[in-house]
Amino acid sequence: DTQDTVKQRLLEKDRKHLWHHMSVHSDDPMIFVSGEGCWLTDIDGNRYFDAMSGLWCVNIGHGRKEMAAAAAKQMELLAYVPLSHSHVPAIELASKISGWLGGEYRIFFSNSGSDANEVAFKIARQYYDQIGQPNRYKFISRHRAYHGNSMGALGATGQAQRKFKYEPLGTGFQHVPPPYCYRCPFGKSTDSCRMECAGIYDQVIQWEGPETVAGLIVEPVITGGGMIVPPPGYLKKVKEICDKHGVLLIVDEVICGFGRSGEKFGHCNYGVGPDIVTMAKGLTSAYAPLSATAVRADLYDSFRERSGTDHFRHVNTFGGNPLSCAVALKNMEILEDEKLIQASGELGRRLSERLLGLSAHRTVGDIRTFGFAAGIELVEDKETKRPASAENVAKVIESCKQRGLLIGKNGDTVPGYANVLTLAPPFVTTPEEVDWMASTLEIALNTLPAGDESFLTGQKRHSEFDGECTA
Ligand code: PMP
């Protein structure tokens, strides 16, 4: 069979049997066969730079032989025992994660980021029940944030588009506006900002009744919801409000953790010690499914003496299996040995500088970076900030793809607002590849229709404005 026939057969089977995770990819999907470092190779032999590290996860890069060796070795030795017993990789990994967190934590393993957040919610509720505050069941999260696909984690998610049709979801989740300086929900500018986006938690907790609130869940920056980077001091203020009301701070490090931010965890950038930390993706660089919920040791102590029906009733067959734990240990070892977290910070600074060169472009409304991740918010009109159309966003993504660069975008958190291009490349990217990404992006942006030429400078001349914006 020729390569072409093999591909056609696979595509036929794909169309007939495989349900893709994002329907947009299902008609003519790229079929990948191998990966090395930042580069993926498809079935036709074309190479693409994976500038999203898959889904913000393959941080150490593709095709790592050491990872394959660690997995094979562990599988030969001991493939499985449940974590009602113990095994060496789980013990070593829990201890290593605690060390990275730098505080006293106990680690509960599961399989996905969604799982890890569900565990966090259940632990928080049961903790309050155990200390005699059983009415504390509510969680507060932010609009635009994504926390997972299961009923509780989706309840915590602040993206209406993902929730329609699946309700009722887990209940007891309230949302507050995100710390979104480019489109401040409080109508403030840098000069007038009093960090209302953090202060709002204080009001909402009081309105809900502090005795009913168990926790807040935040990502250090909102990643998949559009790379929304809070003003400095935000997380610290949020933590103070939590402490004032006896509310737990759950930090979702599913994307920000394990070096993406240039630090071990995203919250390390803000000098805040969370009560509960959830992690997944970067824990294994996606070489095996694994997630973890790290719980402050003194919270864990209230579970410790319990037994029978009083203990934490949450079992997870695959959670913390020896294979995944061994893979995670090897991943963390690679991050340390190759100083990849430091590299992520340095590459991130270079990426920020290069992207700055794009900020004058007529379609670029805002550029936001956090460690080695970036969001480029596209607009049709710099002054009104009217978001770029889905069609134009797709054109830029396609044009990058034609040049061998795979980038991402935020989901449609709000209708009409899927306008943030995203980059989160592997930490083994070279400085030259960073420059190439920025220049490729610029070429792609230049392929967009020029539209009203008066926007070319980013300054609209009012005399020329002759109609309403129809977003
Ligand atoms: N939290 C965040 C911040 C995420 O980005 C994601 C996944 N994109 C999740 C939780 C859920 O993780 P998973 O897909 O592994 O369930």
Automatic annotation (TrEMBL):
InterPro entries: Aminotrans_3 (IPR005814), Aminotrans_3_PPA_site (IPR049704), PyrdxlP-dep_Trfase (IPR015424), PyrdxlP-dep_Trfase_major (IPR015421), PyrdxlP-dep_Trfase_small (IPR015422). Signal peptide: none annotated. GO terms for molecular function: pyridoxal phosphate binding; transaminase activity. Keywords: Aminotransferase, Pyridoxal phosphate, Transferase. Transmembrane segments: none annotated. It comes from the Bacteria. This is Aminotransferase. It comes from Paenibacillus darwinianus.
